[in-house]
Amino acid sequence: MDNATQADVRLRLPERHQVTMTVQCPDDLVDADHAVRVIWAVVCRLDLSAFHAAIKARDGVPGRHATDPRLLVALWLYACVDGVGSARELERLCLDARPYRWLCGGVSLNHHLLSDFRVGFGDGLDQLLTQVIASLVERDLVTVHRISQDGTRVRACAGSNTFRREQRLTVLLEQARRHVAELRALLDDPERSAGLSAKRRAAMERAARERQQRVEDAIGQLPELRDRQARLSKKVSDKDKAKGKLREPRASTSDPDARVMKMPDGGYRPAVNVQLAVDTGSRAVVGVDVVASGVDTGQLEPMRQQVERRSGRHVREHLADGGFLTLDDVDRAAASDTDLFVPPKPPRNTELRGSEFDPRPGDSAAVLAWRQRMGSDAGQAVYKERGATVETVNADLKTRRGLVQLTVRGLPKARCVALWCALAYNLMHFGARLLG
Q1: Residue 64 CB-density burial (10 A; 0-12 exposed, 13-18 middle, 19+ buried)
Q2: What are the pLDDT digits (tens) for 116-129?
Q3: N or C: which end of the chain has fewer CB within 10 A?
């Protein structure tokens, strides 16, 4: 194209210094049928009294107003719907993204407030999940007649190289205590700490105290780890013990509640075990727990009791994979009038022991009925619902709701994250019907 032709081209160019006046109502930021409106409407119907108890801003008391817990709850629920699990990212979205700006309605927030709220109200979140489940039961959307349970390993906020034995932990604890004492002496000296702001001083003190507390917590985990090691030693042969396969227990100095677990990809990394229970008829999450154990054994009865407490209904059928089961679980479930649908482990020598569904000497009546149930076509058909319900919910939480590598330490905070994800999942799928 020659110069004459180029001169004839007419283009629209950006003008970034032109002042414009925009008249906009915050309510116009999202459409009338946007999902964020549903979440806000449901949150406004929930009882948030557990979140109000800690608020110090009261009539007649000096100080600024507190942020409405409804706003903070709705923000984190919608963030989980979007798969956002970072307080800093949520702070940015509150300034840039329309749904979050609509929720805020001009209220300014910072990531410290958002982060503290996310993990600071474990009991309140537990009550919220109970309220949502009770509402679903009341509307006959959930029955909990049949539930399915599964555990998923979630990467913990702990480095693989932070696990230490007792001797090393004792040395680290002494170093941490010495550091706290030296830091206190530094901050108490006006000349040496003259250049430090009050905010910086507080941050240094908090970091030193938390470091010492984590090492103390790691040492506190050792008795439990030794008991577990003693139980495992009964299953290890003397030959393997001589080879050093039974190692001295170690605890993490960054997250004492984390345990090295086998992950879905076959590798071993620090993680926590998130337990979920799902109502098979509606696929609603009706139970959540987080445990520091790489195996699922012993989790059936606690989860069933939790679901019954939340829903006020009796669990008639309980589905889980073979990693959960002990024969005592079968007897306890039968005593509470619950049928377990858990596959028995196949024997190592089928010629000697026969099928896993054949009776064994010493089997109780409940175990005999369980073997017969799992060996029948009807029992197998019921058990197939487990993979189509709880495993898909697990995948949804990990791929879409932000239940990925944890950025918080400790089981209580990890449980808060799991509860947020479960609540977001339930509201995403049942929010509109809860308003009906």
Answers
A1: exposed
A2: 999 999 999 999 99
A3: C
Question: Picking from 88-92, 133-137, 400-404, which range would have the lowest pLDDT averaged per residue?
Answer: 400-404
* pLDDT confidence bin for 245, thresholds 50/70/90: low
Domain 142-158+258-408 part of CATH 3.40.720: no
Q: Is the pLDDT of residue 261 over 70?
A: yes
HEC string of 380-416? HHHHHHHHHHHHHHHHHHHHCCCCCCCCCCCHHHHHH
Q: How many CB atoms lie within 10 A of CB 362?
A: 7
Give the Cα separation of 419 and 436 in Å (integer).
24
Spatial contact of 30 and 104, defined as CB atoms under 8 Å apart: no
Cα distance between residue 271 and residue 416, in whole Å: 16
Give the pairing type, strands 317-319 and 146-155: parallel
pTM for this prediction: 0.89
Query: 241 vs 157, which has greater pLDDT?
Result: 157
What pLDDT does 3 receive?
57
CA angle in degrees (0–180, nearest 5) for 241-246-250: 160
Looking only at the bridges linking them, the beta strands covering 268-279 and 259-262 are antiparallel
Residues near 126 by beta carbon (within 8 Å), at least 6 away in sequence = 419
Mean pLDDT in residue range 387-392: 93
Average pLDDT (78-105) is 95
Question: What is the SS3 assignment for the chain?
Answer: CCHHHHHCCCCCCCCCCCCCCCCCCHHHHCCCCCHHHHHHHHHHHCCCHHHHCCCCCCCCCCCCCCCCHHHHHHHHHHHHHCCCCCHHHHHHHHHHCHHHHHHHCCCCCCHHHHHHHHHCCHHHHHHHHHHHHHHHHHCCCCCCCEEEEEEEEEECCCCHHHEECHHHHHHHHHHHHHHHHHHHHHHHCCCCCCCCCHHHHHHHHHHHHHHHHHHHHHHHHHHHHHHHHHHHHCCCCHHHHHCCCCCCCCEECCCCCCEEEECCCCCEEEEEEEEEEEECCCCCEEEEEEECCCCCCCCHHHHHHHHHHHHCCCCCEEECCHHHCCHHHHHHHHHCCCEEECCCCCCCCHHHHCCCCCCCCCCCHHHHHHHHHHHCHHHHHHHHHHHHHHHHHHHHHHHCCCCCCCCCCCHHHHHHHHHHHHHHHHHHHHHHHHCC
pLDDT at 89 (0 to 100): 96
